[in-house]
Each structure stands twice: as structure tokens, then as C-alpha cells.
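User: Show me a protein chain along with its predicted structure.
Assistant: Here is one chain, sequence first, then C-alpha cells.
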Amino acid sequence: MLTLLIWLALFVLCWPLALLALVIYPVVWLVLLPFRVLGIAVDGVFELLRAIFLLPARMLGNRP
């Protein structure tokens, strides 16, 4: 909602810049999308490594 209000304020103050931002935003989002996917993959690898390293401690810690 805040983004819409900022865009509307920009539209009132300088409409060509607001229209340019409206066109450029999807392009920037598409360019940054692979980096988001890469970040999710790297986070998954770190979580897997963490689970592998903590598995012996979890198995020994759960003894009754």
C-alpha cells in the first residue's frame, strides 16, 4: 500500500518519471529473479549441511 502511495505522489509531482518507473519495475524484477532463486538454493544447502553436522548431537541428546 505504501508503494502505491509513493508512486501516486511521484505521478502527481513528475508523471513521466512515474510512468518510466512503472515500465522499468517489472524488468528489474525479472533481472533480480535468478539471484533470489540462487539465494534460496544456497540457503537450502546451508540448512542441509547444518542438519548433517547436528545429526550426531541430536541422536545422542535424545537418550532417555
